[in-house]
Write the structure tokens for this entry.
Amino acid sequence: MGTAPQTFDEFFLNMLASHRGLEAIAIADVNGASIVKVVAPHAEDPPGGAHLSAAYAMAAEQVAKICLGANRSALLFLEGHLVLQYLDGPLCVTLSADNRDGAGNAGLLYRLMDALRASPAMRALKEHVEKETELDDTYL
């Protein structure tokens, strides 16, 4: 007998639990609408919230328009946190880690970004959001 498939929240909570210092994973669409947000039990909500996701998505688009190339990610030092944001169209993913003591690990966040991109859970989430977006466009 196999194990039951994980929910998205369970998958992301397991990611939090298995990476020291990681406090939150937030996934929004490029307009800033929250899709998934998990926060470690000891942590507060990540700084910036959905507004930060929407702002990053717009900034990355504008950078590409002025021929500076595609922006893959942005690493921020914000309110005692290291915050990595990246676009994985149509999603904007935010990883937030504790940096209050200056010991944050940017390399860990970038490795997590690569692991998330390759995960079946993220592929399924992207497919679901893409399908919903296509339906929205059909009926607008």
